[in-house]
Write a structure and sequence with these properties.
Radius of gyration: 21 Å
Oligomer: single chain
Structural class: mainly alpha
Shape: globular
CATH architecture of the largest domain: Orthogonal Bundle
Order of helices and strands: HHHHHHHHHHHHHHH
CATH class of the largest domain: Mainly Alpha
Number of strands: 0
Helix content: 55-70%
CATH topology of the largest domain: Farnesyl Diphosphate Synthase
Amino acid sequence: MSIPAPAPVSPLPHDTTAPPPSAATVEQAYAVCAQIAGRHGENFPVASLLTPPRLRRHVQAIYAFARTADDFADEPAFEGRRGQLLDAYDDELERAFRGEASQPIFIALADTAERFELPIAPFQDLLSAFRADLTRRRYATFAELRGLLTLVAEPIGRLLLNLFGYRSPALLRYGDDLSAGLALANFWQDVGKDLARDRIYLPSEDLRHFGVTEDDLRDRLAGRPPRTGSAKDMTQRIRDLMRFEVSRARAILDRGRPLIEAVGPDVGVEIAAFWLGGQRILDKIEAGRHDVLTRRPRTNGFDLLAVGAGALWWRARARLAGRGAARPSFERSGG
């Protein structure tokens, strides 16, 4: 995956005989998670002011877990010990769900999981995806890439919906599409960055369809002339490829859009921000004429304000319409 690192917390030896964390220790653990979330390098703030205050620290705990594990799999500082660190992280996760957490991220995560009855499986799926990223650097078909998203993107959406109190299978399916579409937007934003690490998420079948080779991508990234044909033709083929990928990502994002309308305005505003954020990234790629190799599409403060304003406008509209709760078929679970 490709997200800048915020000084991760490494697993350390644990003490299974230690007493349960004190309230002070739990507070300190959540503070560590908030620091990690605050130092993120992504397009839009995690657990922003749009998140209901009662849920903010719990969103940060989930993010800190995923962020740090992602760093182990991706950041240069962990080269040569990635698998070892992810195995240790997996052990810490199991200890946390047994009530034996000893590290800050896991102390906060255990508290969140207990309060909201979160299952361990989505966290394990995330670790499986990060492990896969250590060895798998190409995807033959979009179906294969979509399989990766079921492990690296969909678990986050499901965990957040569980946290917000929504467990309906229909809502989870919407959440899967929204999470997958947002992940694809981030992948396509970072084609150049990932290529520099010899990682290509663009499906091989799509490259063939548009007549693009890996050498074409590398030559364009390095600013070299193409090995065959003209630079103009090579550039156009790459742009056609990215136009297709952006269009498909938008379609998947749009399949998840009903989730915004299905939940209450309190959490719908945050989900709307995620949806708008994904669309904004894709807008940036389009504005750059689908050139993601010579310059990385970047979001800025204006984009952040636009996403926040759009989400708040949605909430105001929903409240004016008198829709203060989810549809009857999508009732919240208790807790």
